[in-house]
Give the backbone structure.
Amino acid sequence: MLYTEIPNCPMNNIAKTKIIATIGPSSWDDSVLRKMFESGMLLARINASFADYNELERVSKQIRNISPRIATILDTQGTKVRVKGLSKETIVKDTVTLSSEDRLNSNVLTITYPSLERDVVVGTRILLDDGNIQLQVREIKGKDVVCSVIQEGILKPNKTVNIPDINLHFPAVTEKDKQDIEYAKNLNFDFVCASFARNKKDIQIVKSILEGSNTKVIAKIENKQGVLNFDEILKESDAIMIARGDLGVELDLEEVPILQKQIIYKCRMAGKPVIVATQMLESMKTNKRPTRAEVSDVANAVMDGADCMMLSAETSTGNFPIEAVQMMNKISLRTENIMKFSPVYGETDAGTETDRFGISACKLSEEIHYNAILIISDSKSVVGSVSRHRSSIPIYVVSSSLESIRENTLYRGVTTYYIKELSDDRDSNILIAVEKIYGSGKLDLLDKIAIISGSSIKNKKTDSILEIVTVKDILNS
């Protein structure tokens, strides 16, 4: 039978695939934020393109007051090229001239990229307004770049400019981004997004600004250079975001779904979280129900194996921020209900030994049918090594670090528990952890669980003990 009825899931039943919601005017109210959290928002994003420092500080404090387990993300503006000096809409057709210099001539469009005439050549494609207007360079006259209009349209002020076929000469981090990252560091944000990442050096520069903090780096893949250099960016980053908006402008649209699947799989092999973003429930900015295509998009991201999905305008400026979170959670729960254990292979930062334990724990759950995997560790690499196999049973992670708790929130299928202090006594840690999870109602006395933990042997650094036990036996020990 193709269709099976399942009971409606209460909203306290949160999907394994995590939800990131962008915070803005629509979600500034405490009651709205709290309801979004209860509905499945476990990570809160603030877009530095629109937020000033007062908003960053106010919203980050607001989030912490609602729950210390919600992770905070600052998304940097990055190096966007825009048309400037245009005071009203203008029709772009036939021929148009672009310049990097301010001009009084109404027939010349000024853009914010300073070396346009030096970097383009005859035949270079230039896209305006997210690709809605397409140009091709026909002639270069001093500072003027004369273009033929391939696809005409109406251009509004301050719209974007993309030049996908050349490597733009921008600093890795703009002055604004540097200041924003410093501010996020001082506010103890959990993650910073490196926008328009082109290579590993871009990520290294962001990490150098964050040095001395616990803030981690999410690399946004949204241009051709980022795609070409993805492997080195992945190795240098803590997580990856597939920013499909700009990616769909820089590359042919039909390439984006394929790249989404390829990037997700590579991230899973490396045991690093991957986020799918942009226009996932876009119509819910103004409608209480999404389109069928949007529902399929969300479900496909879950089936592709994404760790997280992101809501942007839907929750920041849309009319139904709570409903958008609820809908994404509902789609994810239904999709996850039919998914099976999906192992991947490849080395992670956890090391060969732990990687083998991770896949063994997930495989055994299919054969022995135990109820959960418990990881007692402050190491995110261990969590990533296990989570990447998309086990059909829950993964519970116990940590003594609130920062680690929030960082582990990115991983699919992982529920985190905080213990004030993990001791050197492995048995004591296991007892405290199981008591806490059992007390929350997530485990029953007769449940079997697999425990991955560190060795009690002094100086042994890897988490290399895998043990299968019954909850009752632990609690009675």
